[in-house]
């Protein structure tokens, strides 16, 4: 069975991706909340799958290197992300640093740990979860949108670099998803569901070896109420 490493798999979109991919992949699930990872592992095991939980703070590069030492990934989904939606003037240095660390720097460190194994094998697929905030902006989004614009550029450059080694890179850009990313966000009725984003990831991974879907924008289709 191939292995899929998924960051931010303890809840929300990452958890949905882990459950969606579990029938076809051994899952390696990364996040900080041990209990939630245990519950994900139990749910996957209950359906006959396999899930290895790794509790790690993605703000800590050396912890990432230790956690992923010896792990081979056929698929890597860089999903973990946070948002501090605040006017720039209210965005504290810690808010800024946390968004940069989790949304951007962690992608660098996790990918650096797993990409050499993919290149050596001549196969692999990295899916970065960006956002429509990766090409749009909104009030209070100076930090968050900056991180997602960075994810877009990083993803495209990496895609151009590594496809000749048999490694694909894709970026999935959801609109609003009903999760805990924003206060009250999980209750927004018109929003996408985490499962919808998981389906987009599965779709991107399902392309034949000679074809790469690089960028997918997935939006809610119900009218906002
Ligand atoms: N929800 C939306 O409307 C929306 C729209 C577009 C894009 N996205 C993107 O989708 C991705 C997932 O977001 P979500 O909505 O599913 O958010 P969520 O429900 O808040 O989940 C965020 C995940 O990231 C993990 N995480 C956060 N900080 C971490 C850290 N320091 N170390 C390790 N893991 C950390 C969390 O795990 P722990 O807390 O257990 O560590 C959790 O598993 C993000 O990249 C987000 O930007 C979301």
Beta-strand content estimate: 15-25%
Largest sheet: 7 strands, parallel
Major sheet: order of its strands?
Answer: 3-2-1-4-5-6-7
* Helix/strand/pairing category: alpha/beta
Number of strands: 7
CATH-assigned homologous superfamily: NAD(P)-binding Rossmann-like Domain
Whole-angstrom Rg:
17 Å
TL;DR?
41% of the residues lie in helices and 17% in strands. It is α/β, with parallel strands linked by helices and 225 residues long.
Entry keywords:
225 residues, alpha/beta, Rossmann fold, 7 strands, globular, binds NADP nicotinamide-adenine-dinucleotide phosphate
Walk me through this protein's architecture:
The protein is an alpha/beta fold and 225 residues long. It has a single domain, classed as NAD(P)-binding Rossmann-like Domain (Rossmann fold), CATH 3.40.50.720. It has 6 helices and 7 strands. α1 (12-21) crosses α6 and α4 runs parallel beside α5 (142-162). The structure holds NADP nicotinamide-adenine-dinucleotide phosphate.
Summarize the SSE layout with pairings.
Blueprint: E1 3-7, H1 12-21, E2 26-31, H2 34-46, E3 51-55, H3 61-68, E4 75-78, H4 93-121, E5 124-129, H5 142-162, E6 167-174, H6 194-205, E7 215-218
Parallel strand pairs: 1-2, 1-4, 2-3, 4-5, 5-6, 6-7
Helix pairs in contact: 1-6, 3-4, 4-5
The structure holds NADP nicotinamide-adenine-dinucleotide phosphate.
NADP nicotinamide-adenine-dinucleotide phosphate (NAP) is lined by residues 8-14, 31-33, 36, 57-59, 79-82, 102, 129, 131, 174, 176-177, 179-181, 185.
